Amino acid sequence: MSARSAEGPAGSGPLALRATADPLLRLVAHALEVAHGRPPAAVWSAPHAFHLDAPGLVAAAGWPVAAAAAPRTDGVVRLSSLSHPAQSCTLALAGPSPETPPWAARPYALLRALAGAGYGGVGTDLHVQGTLTEAAGLRLAEPRDCAVALAVTDVHTAPGEPRPGRELLAGLIRGLAPRDDAALHAAVLCARPGTALGTGADGQPHRVPFDPPASGAHLVLMAVRGSAQERRAALDRGADRARRAGALSVWPPGRGAGRSVLVLLPRERLTAVRAAVVQELRARGLPAPRFVNIAVAGAARRED
Questions:
Q1: Burial group, residue 96, by CB count within 10 angstroms (0-12, 13-18, 19+)
Q2: What is the pLDDT of residues 192-236, one digit of tens each?
Q3: Where are the alpha helices (DSSP H) in the chain?
Q4: What is the C-alpha to C-alpha distance for residues 162 and 154, in angstroms, rounded to an integer?
Q5: Dist CA 27 CA 205 (whole Å)
Q6: How far apart are CA 132 and CA 48, in angstroms?
Q7: Span between the terminal Cα atoms of the chain, in Å
Q8: Cα(99)–Cα(219) distance, integer angstroms
Q9: Phi, psi at 163, each rounded to 5°
């Protein structure tokens, strides 16, 4: 069992108290200690991922999901999330699967799959939290799965022993949810800043530059609100207005229609495009959208 702790470099102190750390990471580290009475042994972050407006290309966004974990020895997992403060749960890894709160069902299933593969079967305390909610329209499952798998295998790997490879973890996750978007899992686990990831005709991964700021452009997620009917109308109207106002490209971040679109536009048109979209939707009695700046980020990583 690992003796690691999420204290980072010498003299930097615990992650939860480190003033220079990302607020999400400090929050997750602190929340695990509050919920379960012990500090994390590791904190991992995993980026949300999205499809590009080109077949087969995906990239990671600079908005992560974080997982803080600490090992146990009693075959029990304790799960918590600030998004579901009244639905923390304590569950056994062995035996029939018990009833779980809806939010915890998938992390728990993943923990059981990891235990079946020989990772973490002795138990784990786990806290999971993201920077974006489902309302943003980016899929949550892929970054959450990857953050959980990396954190749990990390704290159950003894110092000096190699951690399981990311391809192995991706395979375990795919076995749990074969209908999920494998390309997004690949982006979460293997992305690099300023690049997109794809698969060539030979089946091998390849990378292409995708760095909007380097070309004077800006990438924005436009998330719409309201009822399902209002969201469909707002996406259609908003995308059309963004193009007419100067956007270079507008496309959905995942499969099918959802709650948001990605908008690539010249930097100098950022304010004008946003204002035009808001005016268009309000004029039609639709809720104003939320705009989220997107940086093309790197892969999941351990936060030290």
A1: exposed
A2: 999 999 976 666 779 999 999 999 999 999 999 999 999 999 999
A3: 23-36, 102-116, 141-155, 166-176, 182-190, 228-244, 270-283
A4: 9
A5: 35
A6: 9
A7: 19
A8: 41
A9: -75, 155
- 189-224 residues labelled b (16+ CB within 10 A) or e (exposed): bbbbebbbbbeeeeeeeeeeebebeeeebbbbbbbb
Q: Which two tokens stand for residue 257?
A: 């229609």
* Tokens found for residue 109: 């299933």
Pick from 273, 269, 266: nearest CA to 289: 273
Are the beta carbons of 231 and 224 closer than 8 angstroms?
Answer: yes
Q: 59: helix, coil or strand?
A: strand
**For the segment 70-116, what is each residue's pLDDT rounded down to a tens digit?**
999 999 999 999 999 999 999 999 999 899 999 999 999 999 999 99
Give this prediction's pTM. 0.91
Measured CA distances, 267 to 63, 106, 214, 215, 247 (Å): 20, 39, 11, 9, 10
Measured CA to CA in angstroms, residue 144 lies from 122, 204, 218 at distances of: 21, 25, 26
Q: How many CA atoms lie within 13 A of 55 on its CB side?
A: 2
Amino acid found at 204:
Q
State what percent of residues in the chain have pLDDT above 70.
94
How big is the chain by its Cα radius of gyration, in Å? 20
CA distance 182 to 167: 11
Question: pLDDT (tens digit, 9 = 90+) per residue, 149-165?
Answer: 999 999 999 888 888 99
The label of the residue with tokens 């980072």 reads 8
Q: What single-letter amino acid sits at 59?
A: A
